[in-house]
Please model this.
Amino acid sequence: MSNQKNALQAIIERFFELQELKFKEWDEDFIDEDTGEVVTIKRTGLVTDEPSLEEEQLLEQINSQLSEIDTDTLLRMKDEIIWGPMNDYPIRKELNDRGALGFPWDLIQDGVATLPEDMEEIPENYFQYCYFLKSVVFPKNLKRIGKGAFSVCWLTDLRIPDGVTSIGDEAFEYCSLISVHIPDSVTSIGERAFCDCSALKSIIVAEGNPIYDSRENCNAIIMTTTNTLIAGCSQTIIPDSVTSIEDSAFDGCSALTSITIPDSVTSIGEYAFNGCSSLSSITFHGTKEQWQKIDKSEGWNCDSNIKIIRCTDGDVKL
Model:
C-alpha cells in the first residue's frame, strides 16, 4: 500500500506542477425545496485551462488508483484530492462517517461499486459526485434508492433490480446514463430522478408495473392512472394517450432534436423542456387555438432553443 500511495502522490504532485493550478472556494446559493429559503453552501473547484495530453493521462491514472487507496492513507496524503475530469463541478472535500471525501471507498473497485447483500437502502447522496463510478452491482435485498444517491456520476447503463420500490428525488440526476430499466416493483419515483441525463436514449418500464409504464415503446416513464409523462429522453415518442407533461420531464435533454406533442395534452409543467438546446421547434398535432389553450407553466421552455410550434393549421412563434 505504501508504494501505491507514493506513486499516486507523485502523480498528483506532477499534475500540480504542470498546471500550477489552485483550488478555488466560492459560495453557492440554492433554494431549499422543503422550506423555500435560500441556503448558501461552500463549494470547492479548480481554476485551470484546457488540460494537455499528459495532464489528461495523469488524471486517468489518479482516477484508476483512488478507489484502491484506503481511507486512512488518503487522509494522510493531502488536504484535497483530485478526481474526475476538470470541469465546473465542485470537488467534494467533506469528511464524514463514510470516510474520506464522503464515499464508501471500500465498496468501489476499478470504477465498479459492489453493494453489500444485506443493504436495503442506498442513503441520500451516497455516491454523489463520484465521477469515476461507472457501474453498480446492486444487492438482491435492495428496496430504496435515496435522494441524490448517484447524482453526477459516470453511470451509463442502469438496470434497477427487482424488489426496489422507491427511487428518490434527483437519484440519478446529471448522470451519463444511456439506458434505464425500471422493474415492476417500483411504485415511487421522485422529482428530477433522471433529469439532465443528456445521453439518455432508452427508458423501459417493465410490464406489470402497477404505477408506471412505457406504453407503445415510447422511451419514457408515464404515470398509468393519470396519463402523465414524468420523464423522457432524446428518443421519446409521446403516445396519443398522454394528457400531461410533468415538471422537468425533459429538463436537460440537450440531445433532443425533435418532439411531437399530441392534441390530447392539456398541460405542460414547469421546466418541462428546460435546457433542450438542440430543440428548435415542436410539432403539435392540433390547431393553433388548441395550443394556446394548453395550460403551460411559467418557464416550461426556459434555457431551450424552441422558437416555433408547428400546428396543423400553421405555426406559432414563441
